[in-house]
Amino acid sequence: MSNAPEIALLFSSFIVLLVVRVPLALCLATSTFLSMMVAGMPPVLVVERLYAALDYFPLLAIPFFILAGFLMNQGNIAERFFDLAQAMVGHIRGGLAQVNVLMSMMFASVSGTASADTAGVGSMVIPAMVKKGYSPGFSAAITAASSTMGAIIPPSVLMIVYGSLANLSITALFMAGIVPGLLVGLSQMAIAYRRAVRDGMHREQRPDRRRFLHAARRAILPMGVPIIIIGGILGAIFTPTEAGVVAVAYAVVLIVILRSISLKELPRITREAVLMVALPTFAIAAAVAFGWMIAFLKVPNIVGEMIEGYDIGRQGGLIFIVLIFLVMGCFIDGVPAMIIFLPIAQKVAAVTGIDPLHMAMVIVMTAALGLVTPPFGLCILIAGKIAGVPTPVIVRETMIFVAAFAALILAIIFIPGIVLFLPETFS
To answer: Which part of the chain is the TRAP C4-dicarboxylate transport system permease DctM subunit domain (predicted)?
Structure first.
């Protein structure tokens, strides 16, 4: 293996830097730079790779969807989602926990990012749950777990990135994510119900028809955002990037009509959204350079040759891919992990005959699971900060949701129709 020294340096330097808590983007860029130097490449190639990674039109969808999510999280727009969720499921055992999950589902169809869902839903629902008698740990755990739907239910940023990298239809990915996203939400509602029964929590009174219609009328305009985004993309009216622009424009019009916030607040909100996008964008650029180096050193071919020696089949190949992304999800965010290891996953898929769309959803689901697995678990960290709860407490409370999520991933591996049914039906 002629590239063994470069491969060893690339991965070992990355792991060492990650262990000593160097920021992820710098870990990726530095390890790429070192391996390029050992391989005799010019240093300027690192800069060229970083620039080329961001000079890609579909990635513009990410800041627009995040900005739209920030705008929708403001003022009485979030309250309208809360009131509608309360009217729909608040009377079920574990009412506020059920509301938490349904609100996350609603916000997932707007922002496309799990972290934005955690912050938006958590800041409103966690205090309400604690006041109602739920433990802070469970309140934070179900918030973190339910926010993972932001990475699965369209318009998912993870799917946009994946589709761009793998040259896969983003529309097909969005359709493939609808059923798994709903199943995640239903499984979490079932867990919340079981927890409420165990703790002897009483049902809330079912809202009357007038209250329900009032909440539904107030939420009609905010719910127009996911309808426009998903309907426009699935109907081939505009691209995902254009959908992000339309979502931002609609959200701005909405806050003016509903007087959710003052227009003077727009620069502040935009600045916060830009800051949230900046660091992940640098990490994406560095991850693309790192992934390019992996491909250059023929790491996917090496893994493919190893896999060919064993008759593991499609399911075995998918489980192998899940293990890779599950381990990496404990340490790095889903988008960089996807960029880095997608070439390896594609080689495994080519060797074992895995359907590209099937593999895409398995990877997206596993990357979403990584948001609630320690020690990185970005959604756990955000929810813990809101609830003021130590991370180990949230991790313990989150394990039942992680187990249910992992079981759903296994079901998707062995029953591809869960994700392929809608894309094949409407293709």
So the answer is: 12-418
